[in-house]
UniProtKB/TrEMBL annotation:
Pfam family, one: Epimerase
Protein name: Nucleoside-diphosphate-sugar epimerase
Family to which the UniProt record says this protein belongs: Belongs to the NAD(P)-dependent epimerase/dehydratase family.
Domain of life where this protein originates: Bacteria
SUPFAM superfamilies xrefs: NAD(P)-binding Rossmann-fold domains
Origin species: Paraburkholderia bryophila
Pathway annotation from the record: Bacterial outer membrane biogenesis; LPS O-antigen biosynthesis
Classification via PANTHER family: DTDP-D-GLUCOSE 4,6-DEHYDRATASE-RELATED
Domain NAD-dependent epimerase/dehydratase: 10-208
Amino acid sequence: METNGKVGLFGAAGAAGQIIAAALSAAGRDYRVVGRSRQPLEAAFGQDPHAEIVTWNPDDPASIQAAAADLQTVIYLVGVPYDRFAEHPPLMERTLAGVTAAGVERFILIGTVYPYGRARSNPIREDHPREPHTFKGQMRLAQEKLVLAAHGRNGLSTLVLRLPDFYGPGIERSLVNGVFEGAANGTRAQMIGPVDVPHEFIYLPDAGPVVEKLTRTPEAYGRWWHLAGAGTITQREMARQAYALAGQKPKLMIAGKTMLRVLGLFNPLMRELVEMNYLMTEPVVMDDTALTGLIGPIAKTSYEEGIRLTFEAARKAASAKAAAGGGGAAKAA
């Protein structure tokens, strides 16, 4: 029987870290959350007796090694600003050196579809070529090549788990977060178009139990896997359902590639979105038959249910904000 060794979440303060931590906690497992700043970690995990809070400086090899001490598994969720993707490979190189020096046995990178580039046909399996035509895809590919090359070295086993775009309650960095905030506040939702192309999203809480299971599935290591969403849906249909829950028709402001270019003159983040806009016009849809073959059936929340839960969380947040700030939530973002 596989032992449940301690897991560390590096870059834990974001949405994925909180969701994976919740799955570890639900399984009765102790875990360590690692981040640059203590305050957001305390806010997110301070109430969980299973959580140990550690801060690190990912630029300092000794700090990385200390953060990984006594861990069996490291789950890597470290983000960098969208306009600083060149930092991904050197940061991963330092992290792998630190966790290896600390004697970590397993390393999981939560990855993206960026390294594939354009899909040759959908849905794609893991044997699809990795030929990124974007800078961000090239940096993510370099990052995951480092992870996979470290497999079998100094007692370390590694894997990459690819997720599609995600959504869920309170997940501000979701592509479609504006839809739920707009519906909850009765305001216009800002969206990145085109919005009528079928797109794959994962309801992010569904990923938590899968990652927890992979930490104790030794035969999963040495390769990459796909975790797909519950089929595809258009952004417009998501908006229709979310606004319908609020008893309204959708109010959308859609920025396509041309608009992103214009906005990018003033906003570096918008400028960075231009090169990845191909994923809106030619989405990559993943097939996760291989993963279900390994770990068994994966529970997936339907879009209808996921949209309802995400909308309800947004409505609750809007009500709390209105109560605290005298109606400030009704202002357009």
